[in-house]
Amino acid sequence: MTMLEITGFEKRFTIHHLNKIMPAIKDINFSLKAAEFIGIVGKSGSGKSTILKSIYRTYLPDRGEILYNSAAFGKIDLSHITERQMLHLRKYEIGYVSQFLNVMPRTTCRQLVTNALLEMGSAASIAHEEAEKALAHFEIDPKLWDSYPNTFSGGEKLRLNIAMATVKKPRLLLLDEPTASLDYQSKLKVREIIEKLKANGTTLVGIFHDIEFMEGLCDKVYDMQTRTLTVTDKVGVGTES
C-alpha cells in the first residue's frame, strides 16, 4: 500500500518588500509504502525542510500533489484538504519533529508528553506510564520531568521533542534533523525508536546531515541536488531509480 506520494511538487516564496518571487524547489517526485523510511539529503538551502513543512501543511505548494493514504479520510491531497481535516491528521496520524521546541508555557516536561497521549484518547493511567517510559528512554533526567522545558539545554529540548512525537506512534512521522544536537548515545536512542516505529508500521520521512546515521536505516534516499531517488540495500549502497 502506498502511504505517501509526491508528484510534480513545486514551492515558491514571495518577498513582498522586494516585490520578488523566489523559487524554492521544483519537480520533486517520490513515493513511500507503509513502514518505509526515506531520507532526504542535500546542502543547506536546497529545500529539504520545505518538503517536510509542506507535507505537514505549514506551507502550501504552488504546484503538484501530496497524496496521503489517511486512516480517517482515505486517499487525500494534503494540499487541498480542509483545515479541520489537517488538524485531525496532526492530532491522530501525522507527527513532526523539528530542531526547535515550541510548546505551551508553564507546562512541565512530563505534562507535555502525557498530554500528547491524552489528546489521542488514552486513559490517564496509561498516558502517565507511557510518558515516563518515553522520557526514560531518551535519558531525560527524572529531576527534570516536572520542570519547564525553557530551562533545558538544546539537546534536552530536542530529546523532549522526539519523545512527544514518537510516543503517539503516528502513521506518518516527519523528522527534520532529529539528531542535530545530540551526542552519539542519544542518536542511538533515536535510531532504536525509529526501528521500533517502522516495525509497527509507521512511515517516515527524515532529513539528516549525518549520513552515517542513516546507513542501514533508510529504505530510500532522495538527493535534492540530482533529483534522484535511490533504493538502498540497508548497508549504505543503493540503486538509482
From TrEMBL:
Q: Which residues form a coiled coil?
A: none
Write one Pfam family the protein is assigned to.
ABC_tran
Query: Example GO molecular function term?
Result: lyase activity
Taxonomic lineage from the root: Bacteria, Bacillati, Bacillota, Bacilli, Bacillales
Give the species: Planococcus faecalis
Which keywords does this chain's UniProt record carry? ATP-binding, Lyase, Nucleotide-binding
- What name does this protein carry? Phosphonate C-P lyase system protein PhnL
Domain (ABC transporter): give its ranges.
Answer: 4-239
Please give the SUPFAM superfamilies that the UniProt record associates with this protein. P-loop containing nucleoside triphosphate hydrolases
